[in-house]
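The instructor's notes for this session suggest beginning with a concrete chain rather than abstract definitions. Hand out the sequence below and ask the class to guess, before any prediction is shown, which regions might be ordered.
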Amino acid sequence: MEQLYAAQAQTQGKVHELARIWRTQPYYFYAAFGAPQAKIAANRDAFVKATQAMIKANRFIYENKAKTLDIAIKHVRGGEQARKSFDKTYDVIAGDKIWAVNAGLPRKTLDWTNDLLVKLKRYPGAKPNVDDLVDWSVGKDALKPLGVWGADKGWDPEH
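After discussion, reveal the predicted structure:
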């Protein structure tokens, strides 16, 4: 989104938005961190803590727009000139609840994406079972001390 808004500013609005993947494919699972089960087993606490850190960071983002934008601007090319496009981007992404605030693994999203990959013939063999691909316990353990967030704001407790 920030690239769209920057391009629009540079071209006096001649660049147009065609679609937003999260609206055209609302159950597409397009972001994850993966690890082999053996590594998770050997470093389980580190994976749980890393997941907690991501959850906390995303919750911070939603509750602290100004601070979030300050941090983002500090770490990108364009500095303050990027603020306007980042401000618009924040409003779109926050408004559409893109960043996960809980475990980030909605079952319906993973099942839908798995089915799509079958339709696209992305698997060399049989369709894998989502439960064989995901260690649900890492997200659940990360949430235990943090609690589920956002139910009062319409959040999916799994997102």
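Then share the key points. The chain has a mean pLDDT of 92. Residues 2-22+34-105+136-149 form one domain.
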